[in-house]
User: Fold this.
Amino acid sequence: MDKFVSEDKMTIKLPIPLGTTVYGFTLKCCDACLFQKTKFNNTYPPSKYGDRCNSKMPCHTRFGRVTAVELTFESMKNILKGWGVRFFETKEEAMAKGEAIANRHANQMKSMGFNLDENNYCIKEENKSSSPIKAYWHGDYDDELKIT
Assistant:
């Protein structure tokens, strides 16, 4: 949000006027933590990443939906924080970005050895052992995942 605040911290330059409807997207998890639990826990140790995933992690491989949100004083912080990342001026931009990120996440999960179906949902595996692959991910949707 700092990129929208003037140097003297007195003025906020909005990318669009207050009252404008903007569009944000959501992603859905592939549920690798349920169906490929050993591999998921080896890749994303609960001690480091917590017991639950979040929408910025690569396991969110499926596009969810686009939602309309009005830019108000109350919603400003959340919208500006995600402007150009999760929130966009048009529904088409939000949909294109959401689908691109979901596809990139699916490719990242596949490159780490997770089995996904044609809808990028996790395929349940029967007691297969998997070698640990450590994933280091720090950041937002546009950051790359570091695999070792």
User: Anything to note?
Assistant: Residues 132-139, 143-148 have pLDDT under 50 and may be disordered. Helices lie at 32-35, 37-43, 46-49, 76-81, 91-111. DSSP finds five helices and five strands in the chain.
